[in-house]
Amino acid sequence: MSWKIIATKTFSNEFKKYRKNREFVDAIGKKIQRLKKDPHSVGGYLSGRLHGYKSARVIEKFRMIFRIDEKEQLVALVGIDHRKFDYKNF
User: Fold this and answer.
1) pLDDT of residue 81
2) DSSP state, 23?
3) CATH of domain 4-85
4) Is residue 88 classed as helix, strand or coil in its secondary structure?
5) Are 49 and 55 in contact (CB under 8 A)?
6) Where do the domains of the chain lie?
């Protein structure tokens, strides 16, 4: 079974900042492929105001934030943020 992956505007805008970094782009691509197969095996759940979202390390201290919709078999890529910012942009 393959899950559908969508990117929010916030995710797309953040991705544009790093698209020239080949290591980053490759790592995002690999994470997306894993998300298509089984999003539950990627990353860990967040708490607090981001309860219900998951976070997965991309490279170094960068994290990809996403949410799983079981009904629609959909994974929404919400954003990319540096760990030190505590995901304040979402």
Assistant:
1) 86
2) H
3) 3.30.2310.20
4) coil
5) no
6) 4-85
